[in-house]
Amino acid sequence: MRTPRSLDVEITSRCNLRCRYCYYFNNPALVYRDLPTDEWLAFFDELGSLGVMSVTLAGGEPFIREDLPDLIDGIVRNRMRFSLLSNGGLIGDDIAAFLSRTGRCDYVQVSVDGSQAEVHDSCRGQGSFDGALRGIGTLRRHRISVAVRVTIHRNNVRDLENIAHFLLDELGLPDFGTNSAGYMGTCRGNADDVLLTIAERQEGMATLLRLAAKYPGRISSNAGPLTDGRMWGRMEEARAQGRPALPNGGRLTACGCPSHKISVRADGVIVPCNMLGHLALGRINRDSLGDIWRNSPILARLRSRSAIPLAGFDFCAGCSYIPYCTGNCPGLAYTLTGLVDHPSPDACLRRFLEGGGALA
Amino acid sequence: MNLSDKPIANPVVVLREEFDDWAVLFNPDTAAAAGTNPVGVAVWKLLDGRHCISEIVSKIQNGFEDAPGASGEEIVAFIDKLAENGFVGLELERK
Questions:
Q1: Considering the entire predicted model, what is its pTM?
Q2: ipTM, 2 decimals?
Q3: CB contact under 8 A, A53 and B16
């Protein structure tokens, strides 16, 4: 691929909330500084010339930027589509109507972490539940696709049944996604109160697998207990039946993002991924994104990570799941071990089982 | 379309050329995307409203000879498919 197909852009370092599990704030590798409108518009022109297809605007809270319509105009003018990741609280009718008129908005993701304010607000702050629901309602009134994301943590893992009922039955959303709080940013300081214990993780897995069967095709995940439950179930089945290694198993094959996308921090520094904000590749409007994409030694190393065998790590020594394991997220591997080229301990099935966990 | 038609690429459609000379055509208004081989890329670059379809066929066949997708029928079918999906159209006649 000559150029990235899509970009994740932290369009602002500001946010109206201070969530207790936020991966973004309190990351010593980041610089919390916003760029002026013109800098982003010049960068979007470069993206247009590279044939980039879509941009995801995150933050911080992207709707906090007063110049958001100008920025989105710049994306649309350069023949790209866009999506936004939001807490929903700052979405009013005017901006929603604007997004709708562009015809280029793939979706707005809004975080909802509980079936009621008490649960949702426990990690996201008072009033945030009402703000999220208000935002979702506004977006739907303007016929903008809403992607709700539930981040699972210690305070909502026992509310999952209610959350699914609330989102799918009461609000009538077509689907929602799940992940879980990870040991990054602000969460590192609140880990004991926020992160799931092994028992809670096991409970979350069982609940979500049951709910996914109850609501077929309507609950998704790319991380967190539902992903763990599905992936670990397949790994255990393959191990028990002595199956050959999975095609992507036995090496650090997760994740494939550096092969098709790249990220930019709020201060304009280009990084491989928002989860790897310490790996500076260059700066927008100073360095050529196309050149970075094709020639960065850091990206080349990340892309060749999939050749690194798990069997070479002391961490994996003697593990019978190696042929079925991908090593999982390099971002979490880095925050937990200080090494990008290392399997993520958070996703380790053997560690989960040795810690007292069990698969359903 | 007829062989005398002069199709013109939808200016909003993006041509993403890849390393192996294959490419993706992407319409950001509809999110539709279509992969195409090097012959398709060459056809796309001739959809400028100045070349009629028979001229496009002739130019492609001179450049690619026996390459897959380079027969007259295949080129016409490719342009028709692009038109069906809103990637290409005909300029309105100027008065």
A1: 0.95
A2: 0.90
A3: yes
